[in-house]
Design a protein that fits this description.
The protein is α+β, with helices and mostly antiparallel strands. It has helices at residues 65-82, 104-120, 126-136, 189-193, 202-222, 225-244, 255-269, 293-300; strands spanning 2-14, 19-21, 26-27, 31-48, 55-58, 87-94, 148-151, 162-166, 173-179, 274-277, 284-289, 308-312, 319-321. The strands form three sheets. Strands 1, 4, 5, 6, 7, 8 and 13 form a seven-stranded mixed β-sheet that branches. Strands 10-11-9-12 form a four-stranded antiparallel β-sheet. It has a two-stranded antiparallel ribbon with strand order 2-3. It is globular, with a radius of gyration of 19 Å. The structure holds (3R)-3-hydroxy-3-methyl-5-(phosphonooxy)pentanoic acid (PMV).
Length: 326
Amino acid sequence: MKATAIAPANIAFIKYWGKKDDVLRIPLNESFSMNIDGATTTTTVEFSDVFTHDGVSFIGETIQEKEIWRITKHLDKIRHLANKKLFARVITKNSFPKGTGIASSASGFAALTVAAVQAIGLRLSEKELTILARLGSGSACRSIPNGFVIWHEGETSDTSFAESLYPSTYWNLHDIVVLVSRDAKKISTTIGMEGISTSPYWQKRMKYIPGRILRTKQAFQEKNFQKLGEVIEEDCLDMHHVMQTQSPPLYYWNEITKNIMQSVTNWREQGLPVYFTIDAGPNMHCICEGKDEAKVMTALKTVQGVQSIIQNKVARGAYCINNHLF
Ligand code: PMV
């Protein structure tokens, strides 16, 4: 009873911040994202009646008690669904540093869900897999369907699911992730978003989201990159405005992040179509069309403080592979 899955991280163009239900991880708003092919998690899960406890480890990275706890709780849900009392061995490998704003919890819980469901012998639809992954980490639901994905916020667990709006082949968008720090963030997104209602601006943000989702869908229909880029940056800055005005405030950017934001704006003024977005960490996502990637890469070489770069195309969602990690 062993299975291995690979899942991409995803970058939200319209972001989610705040939940209606913290336990079921039902978000306050609909969000929209792109799966990225250069930042992936591979996870092997084996259930066996020989094991006397769950064993969880990450290859090449340390693991904290609370991460083990979250993974074990997720396995409990899957064991409950399958009505099987078997312990598991879980080994995970990230192609990028976890906890730095590249959605490692998204790719992590998507890979864990798909591998564990397969290993324990459950047969679930894609929609059911997204619901289950959401219970592990909200944005993980968006790493399961193909390409460009919408997460309907829903009102109940069954109605809060993700689906593909366009396949990965629809639009050759690139996400150049600029790593400016490898330090794990001090405040997790789970804890951070519990404070959303202390920001005086969160309700205003909620009013704008439906219009932004609509503009994103229109930009996709028309393949209008400027329209898309403008709404991506607008929503990123808006989410960070809410984060920074929470009590206590959450500042995820550092000086290099801010320099790159300014540089991206300057490059655009000089005619290079590139836009930025940032999740809960200092690392920068530069979004451009495939035809402009080389020019963005050249421009990025002039920026000080860049540690490394991950170039991403649009990825398909999570899937099982036959090469196990143990
Ligand atoms: O996946 P979670 O529940 O830890 O939340 C991630 C939230 C953001 O990355 C900040 C935004 C998003 O929609 O991906």
